Amino acid sequence: MIFKLANPLKFQKFTEKFQPVTIHLALFLLVIGLFFSFFNSPPDYLQGETVRIMYIHVPCAWFSLMIYSIIVICSISSLVLRHTLADLISRSCAPIGACFTIATLVTGSIWGKPTWGTWWVWDARLTSVLILFIIYLGLIIINNSYDDKSKADKYASILAVVGAVNLPIIKWSVNWWSTLHQPASISKLSSPSIDPSMLVPLFIMTFSFFFFFISILLIRLKGEIIQRKIDVIKYNRVEK
Amino acid sequence: MNYFINFIKSEDHFSYVLSSYLIVFLIIFLIFIFSNIKTKRLEKELINLSKK
Predict the structure, then answer these.
(1) Is B49 on the interface with A (CB under 8 A)?
(2) At what angle do helices A54-81 and A149-163 cross, to 10 degrees?
């Protein structure tokens, strides 16, 4: 199954069937998630109602890291195995990752104002996530700067692999340095420091965002495959 | 339902929560719409190129 889908054309057919399912699942889970977030979860004893920002801030932060990890895996696969689909996935993921990262930064900033008393501080967690956003922008710029797509893919892959150094810094910045940002609350699923009434909406919203990510990824992948077909047709006509 | 009513009444925090939800959904909506428009445009371009 996986090897069959490694062929971009077969993958395109798969995306056409699967994409509508993912967007419907995302919307369905979003409605349930919003219900649990606003009607079934209590305010925090310390932060009050602002804790509800967590249900969108945390999934966005998780996906900004997860999408970058996917880009790194695809970049390594592209550099080592020269796999076309890996390049296409990297290209498609970068703008989505950038969107989740800017959403993380904005919601974090809005959450910071009533909680910390400031919109922004140059502490380790916030700064390292800002660097992640700049890396995403770098990937998007490289992907769109070259007419020769193989060259763009190669340089973007190198940047992605080098930028992977930032991932452990983001993850453990709250442990390594003294920061305003709180440490991880769900490092172990068996003993999270969050009450189940808050954990349930958080996970439902996370699954909703996951299906949004998959849905947008499949649309962008389809676009990238079509773009490659167009490039081949144009190249063949110039050759003739 | 009580949680929601208390949330609506919390004047000082209501705007922070509402604005962050709206911004996130706007960002997701925009990337979804722009990705869709781009793919549809490319599909049309491919069909036109194939016809020529």
Answers:
(1) yes
(2) 120
